[in-house]
Amino acid sequence: MEYRTLNTGAKMPMIGFGVFRVPDKAECEQSVYDAIEAGYRLIDTAAAYTNEDAVGQAVRRAIADGICTREELFITSKLWVQDMVNYETAAKAIDASLEKSGLDYLDLYLLHQAMGDYFAAWRAMEDAYKAGKLKAIGVSNFYPNILTNFCETVAIKPAVNQVELHPYYTQEAALETMDYYNVVPEAWAPLGGGRYNPFEDEMLLGIAAAHHKTVGQILLRWNVQRNVVVIPKSTHKERIIENFDIFDFSLTDDEMKQIASLDMGYTGSRAKHFDPDFVRMCLNNKIHP
């Protein structure tokens, strides 16, 4: 396993397991358990995924079965927009995430979107961090201009910025801004989010064949070599194991450039954060009464 060191001093695994859109509790729990058994130690969930409880149950099972200790795990969740109304709503939501997961603390907690009163929500997260409820705090989907303003304003700078990062949306400017503020980049949809047919791309197939790896493993390794943490998702045990097997080879500089040539800029993004309709959709997405 390779790690990134956060601005808190904690070490964050370079590959984790995501549970976006795995609402079935039993399927989510088993997938997370399989991932931990396969060697994953970073698990990424969110209040908006409505499966924090299933993740917590899988964690407790894995610990009880002697697969790992709690200290070896790095559990992440996120504060949803609905609860970024003020300090009080955010504080309640943090406690709700802890209660649902059944965990005494979370290793990382993120603002899910730069929407609502995210500065007030951040102050609640800062206090939860100081209280030991959250071991690190960060943000998600913060574009360079927003992240810059945020880092220049808040008392505690974010440790992580989880954004869409894959060869079709490389976001080099975003990585430069994160590096400037010592914020670790983490890629959601590192395999492209099921679009663009990377598994049929002749260039990617050729690179995969040269390393005796799959295209998925090549895409994940590409981001890891850019010092980006990746959180692929799968509910299939074989794919979960396959995705984890990316630390026994390296891509050449030329291969890295070839893969990056797939970049489509903002056109290649899955979530259109600059679209007012997308923002309204997020603001109106209620995950609890």
Q: Percent of residues in helical segments?
A: 40-55%
Given the structure, what is the number of helices? Answer: 11
Order of helices and strands: EEEHEHEHEHEHEHEHHEHHH
Oligomer: single chain
Mean pLDDT: 97
What is the CATH class designation? Answer: Alpha Beta
Cα(first) to Cα(last) distance is: 41 Å
The CATH superfamily label reads NADP-dependent oxidoreductase domain
Dominant shape: globular
Question: Can you summarize this structure?
Answer:
This protein has 289 residues and is α/β, with parallel strands linked by helices.
What does this structure look like?
The structure is a single chain. The protein has 289 residues and is α/β, with parallel strands linked by helices. The protein has helices at residues 25-38, 52-64, 87-101, 118-130, 144-151, 172-180, 202-211, 215-224, 237-244, 253-260, 276-283; strands at residues 3-5, 11-13, 16-18, 42-44, 74-79, 108-111, 137-140, 160-164, 184-188, 229-230. It has one domain (3-283): NADP-dependent oxidoreductase domain (TIM Barrel, Alpha-Beta Barrel), CATH 3.20.20. It is built from eleven helices and ten strands. The relative contact order is 0.13.
